[in-house]
Structure prediction request, 508 residues.
Amino acid sequence: MISIVLIGTGNIATHFFDTFLQYDMLNVLQVVGRRNESLHYFSQKTETCLLSDTLKKADVYIIAVSDDAIPEVSSKLKHVTGLVVHTSGSVSINALNTCKNYGVFYPLQTFTKGKKVDFRPIPICIEAENEDNLKTLSFLAETISDKVYQISTEQRSHLHLAAVFVNNFTNYMYTIGNEICDDHKVPFEILEPLIKETSAKILTLKPKEAQTGPARRNDVATMQRHLEQLKTKDKKQIYKLLSESIQKKYGKKL
Amino acid sequence: MISIVLIGTGNIATHFFDTFLQYDMLNVLQVVGRRNESLHYFSQKTETCLLSDTLKKADVYIIAVSDDAIPEVSSKLKHVTGLVVHTSGSVSINALNTCKNYGVFYPLQTFTKGKKVDFRPIPICIEAENEDNLKTLSFLAETISDKVYQISTEQRSHLHLAAVFVNNFTNYMYTIGNEICDDHKVPFEILEPLIKETSAKILTLKPKEAQTGPARRNDVATMQRHLEQLKTKDKKQIYKLLSESIQKKYGKKL
Prediction:
């Protein structure tokens, strides 16, 4: 049995909380927030307190707050003996090195407020400074997820950067596609099956091999027409830069 | 019952052929290719011939060849009385205006050689010059798909451009993410659930509202660190341009 104090009341903290409650092996002793109002949801199911109050003694303290707030929270956890972890993709494990026992517990997924999450297929990247702490994190992670990876701070920083491309920038490509449709009164829903299949394809094919399109086949006439169709400078620049980069990758001379 | 002559032996022609065979209402009289070798698969199930041979009389002639080859093929179909359609996203309906009856039959999906396709959820965009031809295309499209849209040549050109963003450029974002992982010995599979969820999210949320990440929240320190981490000039430029464009869209001063 692992006892947990959860610090944070946002999106990720809420998803963790709902998930931990499902497992008898995990016991959320306390949820810690900045304001009483944000603790309401949690207080119906466990004890809550403010960050300035005295925290309970627990096996693991999970800091699920914004990156910027991690230093402030960790400074309040200097004297606890339990294992203190943060849940950030981009913050070093050393941000917690004023604590006695520390580590990282990073779930790699995009979370939507209010949408229920099944953690079983979600990768959890764990990191710790010694074997005992690693064992504790492994146990905690494997209790809720089928995909647990031991990932160093350096690897995690690259993973986080890769996630910006495959999640944030990909979503921006969807936004541009949506705007083009709206501008010309074409229902964006026509593109939904294509979007779904594009993401499904890479489960069986490496993305480099799955690449298609005018840039991939060096179809200069189509690219020129597309550039003329695009209305804003931003969209033109993005189309041009990405097309040229694809052309170079596949060995076409510009 | 609609009788069909299918011209082309590539990816899309093969997927159409396999699908048409499943419906009693559709009768593929003939498949037409450029070389005998490419006709082998089709000749086991229907009649085949070369483009230089005499084509059968059919209700619909479907040109499923590369965009560049459409003029050559259509010039051979000048004298047929059936409805001649091409299957391209980016070629005007007028490319076929030397034919007596002509139109467009464009399935909007990315097809993988050898991977079976269910056309029912795939949007088919149809266009024709008169009501009778439109009715024929509606019937044909609705026989194989649940999502049939009447789309003009102009709308289709914008749809095709939007598809470049949501499919080709998105796949390139996956490629870059994959390279970053490979460079740092992180398994790319860790990102697969994130990729899947990113594409699933837009079914319930407009992409503009689903945008997250350092650029969206104007997190300058993280963006700076990411730029330093990126090794190639191409990746740096892409990261910078997309981040700046996102920052501008969400009203942050640069």
